[in-house]
Amino acid sequence: MERFTAVFERDGDWWVGSVEELPGANTQGRTLDEARENLRDAVAMVIAANRDLARRDAEGRDVIREEIQVAVA
Predict the structure, then answer these.
(1) 6 pLDDT exceeds 90?
(2) pLDDT of residue 1
(3) Closest Cα to residue 7, out of 18, 52, 64, 35?
(4) How many whole angstroms separate alpha carbon 54 and alpha carbon 45?
(5) Residue 10 lies in domain
């Protein structure tokens, strides 16, 4: 399981959420709990979409795909 920094802000009757480390992972919810759950879903969708786009872009090319680990402070 990965860890990200979620940022939530009240906007009228809504909570708006985003992830600092993952541009494009944004959402909203009527409650803070709903926004949290929606943000978890958004993160999973953004990562899956980015992975799919990268794989399609690499089709037919001589590429090496491998996992890396990065320590971030």
Answers:
(1) yes
(2) 80
(3) 18
(4) 14
(5) 6-58
How many residues belong to the chain? 73
pLDDT(73) > 80:
no
Using CA atoms, how far residue 36 sits from 20, 45, 48, 62, 73, in Å, is 14, 14, 19, 39, 23
Q: Which pair of tokens denotes residue 4?
A: 């990200």
Q: Say if 37 falls within a structural domain.
A: yes
pLDDT at residue 38 in the model: 98
- Tally of domains in the chain: 1
How far is residue 17's CA from residue 53's CA, in Å, rounded to a whole number?
24
- DSSP string covering 6-65: EEEEEETTEEEEEETTSTT-EEEESSHHHHHHHHHHHHHHHHHHHHHHHHHHHTTS----
pTM of the model: 0.84
Taking residues 16-24, report their average pLDDT: 96
